[in-house]
Amino acid sequence: MTQGTVKWFNAEKGFGFIAQTEGPDVFVHYSEIDGGGFRSLEENQRVEFELNPGRQGRAGQPRSGTLTLHAP
């Protein structure tokens, strides 16, 4: 799994971006957040994720697959 930090996330629209340690920013959609209930992310939150090969975000950037949150 790859680690990164949430750059920004719009809970109303259900998507945002993760900054990887190395490589381009990654598009994330709320449906990829592991867990039940209301799924959202906070700016600067550390996360662990799998890249989803073959799927891209709106501007062609990489897209995340399953995303796991780190405890603060």
From TrEMBL:
<dbReference type="InterPro" id="IPR011129">
    <property type="entry name" value="CSD"/>
</dbReference>
<keyword id="KW-0804">Transcription</keyword>
<dbReference type="GO" id="GO:0005737">
    <property type="term" value="C:cytoplasm"/>
</dbReference>
<keyword id="KW-0963">Cytoplasm</keyword>
<dbReference type="InterPro" id="IPR019844">
    <property type="entry name" value="CSD_CS"/>
</dbReference>
<feature type="region of interest" description="Disordered">
    <location>
        <begin position="49"/>
        <end position="72"/>
    </location>
</feature>
<dbReference type="InterPro" id="IPR012340">
    <property type="entry name" value="NA-bd_OB-fold"/>
</dbReference>
<keyword id="KW-0238">DNA-binding</keyword>
<dbReference type="InterPro" id="IPR002059">
    <property type="entry name" value="CSP_DNA-bd"/>
</dbReference>
<keyword id="KW-0010">Activator</keyword>
<dbReference type="Pfam" id="PF00313">
    <property type="entry name" value="CSD"/>
</dbReference>
<dbReference type="GO" id="GO:0003677">
    <property type="term" value="F:DNA binding"/>
</dbReference>
<feature type="compositionally biased region" description="Polar residues">
    <location>
        <begin position="63"/>
        <end position="72"/>
    </location>
</feature>
<keyword id="KW-0805">Transcription regulation</keyword>
<dbReference type="InterPro" id="IPR012156">
    <property type="entry name" value="Cold_shock_CspA"/>
</dbReference>
<protein>
    <submittedName>
        <fullName>CspA family cold shock protein</fullName>
    </submittedName>
</protein>
<feature type="domain" description="CSD">
    <location>
        <begin position="1"/>
        <end position="69"/>
    </location>
</feature>
